[in-house]
Amino acid sequence: MADIQGSYDDLFGAVPTALAALLDGGDVGGSVAVFVDGEPVVDVWGGFADAARGVPWQRETIVNVWSVTKTMTALCALVLADRGELDPDAPVARYWPEFAAAGKESVLVRHLLSHTAGLPDWDGPVAELHDWQAATARLAARAPQWEPGSAAGYHSLTQGFLVGEVVRRITGRSPGEFFADEIAGPLGADFWMGLPAEHDHRVALTVPPPGRDEDYTAAAAHSEADRTATTPTTATPNSATPAGSASSATPTAIRLRDGNSVAWRRAQIPAASGFGNARSVALVQSAMACGGTVRGVRLLSRAGCERAWEEQFSGEDRRLGMPISWGLGYGRFGGTYGWGGWGGSTVMIEPEARVVVAYVTNQMREPAQDTRGLDLLMAAYDGLKGLQSDG
């Protein structure tokens, strides 16, 4: 059995056992955290930080969590909304005048957060993702592919720039700077959007699925939509356009080697280039699970948290190719909210129980065969039942 490091409450012993089973089954490395009331009841890790399996995964190992980053960017916007500095029902152009070009005057901020703005595809060169001004200017010039608000299509790479530029226009700070100053810093959370070079030695590079190499991309329509919309671990960046859906742009395929590059780590791609571990993901999102306050740090009000769960869209997502319910920056799965990233990383929030479950990994699997996030979530719920019965 794989060696699992860290700590956990005895009631949650199924979680490290489940992580060990994944590692025994061939995964390279990963970490899992379960937070209740803002405190860890599980904080474990195991395996290796490199494909050669020569560097053990350590407590401070961090990894690209891909689209789990979207939940961090959404939190930035929700904090501003709670402060009265951002109105989700306002036109984006109120904060970003250039965005009104090409018929986008009616696009609202909530459309950006709920993937209904009609700008789902990144059609520029990969290198332009590393240039904030160029990326946002490209999106500002684009016409929407459908009437904003009338349909949803997962904005896999574009959402971060769209929401992030609104944050920048309001605060004068990049989303990564705002997140560091206003969220990660006060919480002491080891999560980064725009990773400083001094942390490179802690990064576990992403490993492709068995039989794949670093040119691995998601080219098929559903290849990056994890499993089904009924499972809480639905979703990862999708660079593909499902057959039969209209598109005015040719999406750019992102290769695994792009995400493993130094340029990707340095850039702020707030939909897909966040770096952290399960502990930091769970700590940050505990603010949403605990009514806006965690460990004595108040990020936003309870009403501000509840706003995030309000349904903005329900139906077939044009890019994911499956039914989905979108809130403001989070997927909605009954009374549970969250999102996942390409490769398997996942965060799920249950406000009623004040619980967050986070899983991060450097081991990709083929999305259609990947149930790891769900398996770990179910293991965590076993412990939660015991905790509630004891209480």
Distance between the ends:
32 Å
Unreliable residue runs: 219-248
Q: How many DSSP H or I helices?
A: 11
Task: List SSEs in N-to-C order.
Answer: EHEEEHHHHHEHHEHEEHEEEEEEH
- The tally of structural domains comes to 1
What do you see in this structure?
The protein is α+β, with helices and mostly antiparallel strands and 391 residues long. The protein has a single domain (4-390), classed as Beta-lactamase, CATH 3.40.710.10. It contains eleven helices and 14 strands. The chain has helices at 14-24, 69-82, 109-113, 132-141, 158-171, 175-187, 256-259, 262-266, 278-289, 302-309, 372-390; strands at 4-8, 29-36, 39-47, 63-64, 192-193, 274-276, 293-294, 297-298, 313-317, 322-326, 331-333, 336-340, 346-350, 355-361. The strands form four sheets. The chain has a seven-stranded antiparallel sheet, with helices on both faces. Strands 4-6-5 form a three-stranded antiparallel sheet. Helix 4 crosses helix 5. It starts with a strand and ends with a helix.
What are the defining features of this structure?
391 residues, Beta-lactamase, globular, 16% strand, 11 helices, 29% helix, seven-stranded antiparallel sheet
